[in-house]
Amino acid sequence: MITRLLTFPLILILAGIAALMMYLPAIDAGMRGFSGVGKAFAFSGTIGLALVITVGLALSGRSNQRMSDTQNLMSLLLAYVLLPVFLAIPFYTGARNTTFLNAYFEMVSSFTTTGATLFGAQGRLVDSLHLWRALVGWGGGLLLWISASAVLAPLNLGGFEVTARGEPGQDETVLSRFERATPAKRLAQSTRVLAPVYIGLTGALWICLLIGGERAFVAAIHAMSTMATSGISSIGGLQNGAAGFAGEFAVFLFFFFALSRLTFSSDTITSVRPGVRNDPEFRLGVLLLVGVPLILFLRHWIATLGVEDTSDWQLALRALWGAVFTVLSFLSTTGFESADWQEARDWSGLGTPGLILLGLSLVGGGVATTAGGVKLLRVYALYLHARRETERLVHPSSVGRATGLGRRIRRQGAFIAWIFFMLFAMSLTFVTALLALAGQGFDAALILAISGLSTTGPLILSASDTPIRLLELSDAAKMIYAMAMVLGRLETLALIALLNPSIWRD
Question: What one-character-per-residue DSSP string does 279-334 give?
């Protein structure tokens, strides 16, 4: 079994790319005078690249068999569990003042685009180590884009099961342009199509932040974190940057790429009519973006009726912007806060609106994006089903008007979406209970569980009155949280699909 797992080429490819990426922080550390950190990354990259080439050549004669989509899914799981061990080696060697478990945890958090960190923005980590965290998170985001269309969509997983014709976990592709391609060829085609878009958008956001007045290094970190929805920052958050409102507005626009796959690609089927305006995910995301800040904004006016001199429109607009930005940030599971978020909280009268942030993160972004959470398409499928059932209560003999994909979403799609919700609730309960057994209080355990399963690391700082210090967690709690991040990234349905016996057949 172990020999068969080692023949999965995707793991070796990812390890080789990671080894090459280690030279970037090595160069950065050398330019900053951090010779010890630079050597750690340079040596790790060189040795890792040599090992990957050696193992690849040794196994090349045993990789003649065609890889299936299910085996590629298994490769993804192994990558999220095993690859952070390799990624943690230069981080551990460069940091010098931490344990390897902490370094492994940091890399799992970055690679799953969760962004939860054991270290503060200032002090213990030099900028080169922050760059490595951002690069790992950015690479994890690109992997999500590619694996969504090349691995998850053919298996009807990751949200595609709501609209797919086949059953979840079955090798019945829902793609049009990749239908006749082998899994390996599909991965190559997806990479060729999506990688330039991902790199170009990251570069465009970096330039926008530079124009806004941000330092080049910080702008690069925030651009990569925004595209990957990891929320990683070298200065403690976007609100501490120098770009101000212009930088926040640029990041705000790029958050929309996490609401719908159709904002950057058309290689998968998610709606009946073409175009992002007709995409139910995008429309539901915009509805939440408008509705939640409006409720927070109007709450102030309702609470201050009859009180004189409360119409400071400049303060009101700042509060409204802070609410709009932060709502979309947590809906996309990025977790950046606006510099005006405190104004929004003061205006709404909510000291720490943790339930709102937790709810937005649970809903999450679009299918096949870098966002985590339950996904907007599943929420929309349940909404359609609930609306139809309400119509039947009023008119029992009525006939639904929708056909084709709409009927699929209401019936089979809604049923599968409900199953996923139940599995997600069970996972949330299980992880919360394990964290409680590991010494966490109920509130902290619940926030940690939601943060991990929705891959929204900044929740641990924003969802409670007292920020949760991950460094104070026990080793058992750290491993449980890391397990939750991997589970949230791959989703429970994908893990169940791996129980298919065909993956272990010779």
Answer: -HHHHHHHHHHHHHHHHHHHHHHHHTTT-SS---HHHHHHHHHHHHHHHHHHHTT-
